[in-house]
Amino acid sequence: MGGLLNTASMLMCPHGGTVSAITSNTRVNAGGSPLVRASDTFVIAGCPFTLPPAIPSPCVSVQWVSPDTRSQVMSDYTLSEASVGLCLAATQAPQGTVLISNTQQQVTGE
Predict the structure, then answer these.
(1) CATH of the domain at 12
(2) Domain-located, residue 28
(3) The whole model's pTM is what?
(4) Environment class of residue 68 by beta-carbon count within 10 Å: exposed (0-12), middle (13-18) or buried (19+)?
(5) pLDDT value at position 104?
(6) Predicted pLDDT of residue 105
(7) Which of 12, 40, 47, 15 shows the shortest CA–CA distance to 26?
(8) What is the structure's pLDDT at 107?
(9) How far apart, in whole angstroms, are the C-alpha atoms of residue 16 and residue 102?
(10) 3-state secondary structure the chain
């Protein structure tokens, strides 16, 4: 079990871009911020990734492939430190997995 992710959790793409969560969850908070769910929108800003020869291919979004399987908020599965998300380019090409560096520890899930 790991700490559930909320909108204040620190997430990054493998190239150092910042992942931000946009959630419609207005009911359930943990650590002072709304919990996020697999169906929420995750956007990435500041990814410097380029393909040779200098073709920009930054990570722009996240698709969660392994959310929690038991805990839910508003009829959707939550995300935790154990969840796996793929960072995607604008072409939907996978660029690597989301790096979860910090989250709240008051509420856990699986």
Answers:
(1) 2.60.200
(2) yes
(3) 0.88
(4) buried
(5) 66
(6) 64
(7) 40
(8) 58
(9) 14
(10) CEEECECCCEEECCCCCEEEEECCCCCCEECCEEECECCCEEEEECCCCEECCCEECCEEEEEEEECCCCCEECCEEECECCCEEEEEECCCCEEEECEEEECCCCCEEC
What is the domain extent for residue 35?
2-104
- The pLDDT tens digits for 49-107 are 988 777 889 999 999 999 999 899 999 999 999 999 999 999 999 999 999 987 766 65
- CA atoms in the 13 A half-sphere facing the CB of 90: 8
In the chain, how many domains are there?
A: 1
Contact between 9 and 83 (Cβ < 8 Å): no
Round to whole Å and give the CA distance between 91 and 77: 26
- What is the per-residue pLDDT across 40-54, written as a single tens digit (0 to 9) for each? 999 999 999 988 777
Kindly report the number of other CB atoms within 10 A of residue 3's CB atom: 20
